[in-house]
Amino acid sequence: MLGLLLLWGIGAAQASSTQGVPAKQLLVLGDSLSAAHNIPVEAGWVHLLEVRLKQMEPGWTVINASISGETSLSGRNRLPELLAHYRPRVVVIELGANDGLRGLPLNELQANLSAMIDAVLKTGAKVLLLGIEMPVNYGPQYREGLRAVYADLARDKHAALVPFMLEGVALNPALMQEDGLHPVAEGEPIVLNTIWPKLKPLL
Question: Which ranges constitute the DSSP H helices of 8-139?
């Protein structure tokens, strides 16, 4: 069941200069699942998204600001500078797994995600929230409460939501790395295809 975990925290943020900032920028703020952990960067879903956008939605630039081990609090602290620097039109928030793995109070996670969504919406940008799942050993109350955090925020903030980013991947050992937390390269296109239907209308 470890495949249900998302230890979302990768390093290697891809950034672009503010000089000549493209008119249409998409910012991904996440952790390891958004930064190609232990696989080539070009195999990760964020890079695959960039390739798809060049083909289907020309003019968009993808900024991957994901950092390994990122929590909702550290992401909340980093977000204002990222918004000011890149001025994105769409922000994908993929955070909360590291909070969950540490068993942090769900009200803290909800407060941090809520503040991030508000900060994005205040700039006029659109938000896509990527939800997570915890393993069964965390107990039904915590697992269901975590799901509710994302569902409630998406409803209350009118934000787009992917309930579980690794749907169709996490429980397939052939698509997961040995750590049971991160997809192998072959699983990344499936991750993108799970996200795309919710992301495309925001572009």
Answer: 45-56, 72-86, 97-101, 106-122
Count of domains observed in the chain: 1
Give me the catalytic one of 31, 47, 66, 182: 182
Both tokens of 180, joined, read 């049971």
Q: What φ, ψ does residue 108 adopt, rounded to 5°? A: -70, -45
Query: Is the whole-model pTM more than 0.85?
Result: yes
The CATH number given to whatever domain includes residue 124 is 3.40.50.1110
Which among 31, 32, 47, 72 is annotated as catalytic?
Answer: 32
Per-residue model confidence as pLDDT tens digits over 153-164? 999 999 999 999
Instruction: Pick the catalytic residue from 118, 152, 156, 179.
Output: 179
Which segments of the chain are extended strands (E)? 24-30, 60-64, 90-94, 126-130, 160-162
Rounded distance, CA 43 to CA 158, Å?
31
CA dist 16 → 12, 52, 57, 61 (Å): 13, 19, 19, 9
179 is catalytic: yes
Residue 182 falls in the annotated catalytic set: yes
Q: What is the pLDDT of residues 114-139, one digit of tens each?
A: 999 999 999 999 999 999 998 778 88
Structural domain including 47 reads 2-202
